[in-house]
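Q: Got a minute? One more chain.
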Amino acid sequence: MEESAPTLNLADVRRTIEPLYEGQKLFTGESVMAHAEGVVDILRGIRDDDDLLAAAYLFCVWNQLKNPKEWLTKHFGKQVCELVANLKVVIDVSEKARSREGEARISQQPDAVRRLLLALCTDLRVVLLRLASRLQTLRYFVATKAPGAKEYGAETLALYAPLANRLGIWQMKWELEDLSLRFTEPEVFHTIANNLEETREERVASIQEAVRRIQALLASRGIQASVSGRPKHIYSIWKKMCKKNLKFEQLFDVRAIRIIVDSVEKCYETLSLIQESFEVLSKEFDDYIAKPKPNGYQSLHTVIVGSRGKPLEIQIRTRAMHEFAELGVAAHWRYKEGSKRKAGEHEEDRVAWLRQMLAWKSDVQAAPTPEAAKDEHIYVLTPQGKVLDLPAGSTPIDFAYLLHTELGHRCRGAKVDGVMVPLNTKLQSGQTVEIIAAKVGAPSRDWLNPDLGFTASPRSRTKVRQWFNAQEMEQAVTAGREKIDKDLARLGKTAVKLEDLAKRLGFNTVDDLCLAAGKDELGQKAIENVLAPRPQKNPQEEEKLETAAPKKTSEHEKGKILVVGVDSLLTQLARCCHPVPPDEIVGFVTRGRGVTVHRADCPNIRSLDEEGRDRLIEVSWTQDESSVFPVQILVIAADRMGLLKDISEILSREKQSISAMQTVRVKGDVHMTFTIEIHGKDDLNRTLAAIREVKGVFSARRT
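A: Always. Here it is, folded:
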């Protein structure tokens, strides 16, 4: 049986940690004990949870004890120990990610840091602890005017205030924003504060008069309600002034009244009474009950004209709506006050929904299961504190390739949190990764072996394949050049320029010529034929001999292609390289036209920039022998009677359908381009070999 947790007494917790914190100060200069007391006071106003408040007191004890886990569990229970341990991880990572220069600073990468922190939080109360800690730090800066407040204010506006908003704890969000604005834009803050102070007497009198009228009106109709003035926050005033380009005097909702009733029906009944009894600004009405805000906020908003002719905003809501508006999801926290039971399945689903909402969803969707809400990414840091987003299961090699392709190629080792690890180590969120690279190096083919687990990211595997493809192509070009040189020597034609030979054989560059020779697509016979003298042809023959109109595209033209990890995704074969099985292929995600499948050695793929390479995905051929694929072949030959007939007979014998054909005469040679439909590369190679044996053919190759 699991041991029952010791009974928590917060006074005892405080007495226990007071000697440990004596004389200690935080980086900001604030006393550790004073900070803990401040955080506890803040959290008491949100949720009176003993475990949460105990963890707030114990936030700084972990590094001061030899066996903190054992000590915390023994004295305060497993729940408190887990909260403190998780909080320590989050604090450590926060410190790594802050106080950096340039793009690694928190204020420059708030979304990445937010995702990192939330990925580390196994209990959402840890987020609450971090928010309360930051609020206490800002209060300390207000009280002491200590240096560094501006940087903390910028971080808060970029990271912590949006986090409080996502969580729905507006009570904390408003104070975080107002205090941050005080430090980041002091002139703006004090100008608005002074305007509010100067008009306070008039506003208070106007609001009090309106409150009395509304209370009397509701009482006369038997509606029980709480009616009060609503404070307006300086940051929200400033944002509205900026957004709508308004002056302070033009704002409608500086004066506001909140009405809290018992039910939704009473909300609408109250709204009807208000609209009948006061002059209403019709354009200023919002029904957030019928259509709640994405974060769950509900209320009726309208604007009336007060007795002194000033606009007055009215908010009408139920008690439950009001609690949610003030405390957000903390009002529905799964750890009920005084409850020590484990969270059930329903509560776990609620936590999963919250994690999704907090992480990156702008709109609240249907509550997913915990499995559906599981994060498929990890968030790790560079030694400079920059947060990087990787697929779950990524390794140091994936990390290196994400930073830079060359760094990935030269990666030889890695340190994770300062400790050397194997390159197939699975990284975890919050870890700091440092890559050890050789000055000159190359990837290993082992990195492509899924059983060895060196790479988890499709992007990394694509880059490794591209490197090996480039090496193989370079080797093929070198071997092809040597082969052509030997063939020319045998023919006694060493004076022939390779540039001229490439053009005669229909290649754009010498490298293309050598590559074809290296792949055995061009033999000595083709070179001999193209260099041999030929009789003159009738100059009045048409240069363009024949052009066959394309046939209707075969219903199998798209073939069978599997996009790795994605079902039912639109794919199409690239027309620039016409891939066929078993060509090595790669998918390129287009804008609005699905995935275009290219050969891995396609020039268009090789020439992509870094941004373009990020849109490459893994694809593979499925095993479907009935599929056919269009492919273009180029035949270059000496012009003669019956040439087209001989080639057509070969295609007919090989059962290759011709969907298009074009024949053009170039400097006495005939260049014939055929688009044929084949089942695979073996069919293509057999057909090309047969065409090369035709009399007068110099070369036959795939384009």
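A: The CA atoms of residues 146 and 580 lie 69 Å apart.
Q: Perfect, thanks.
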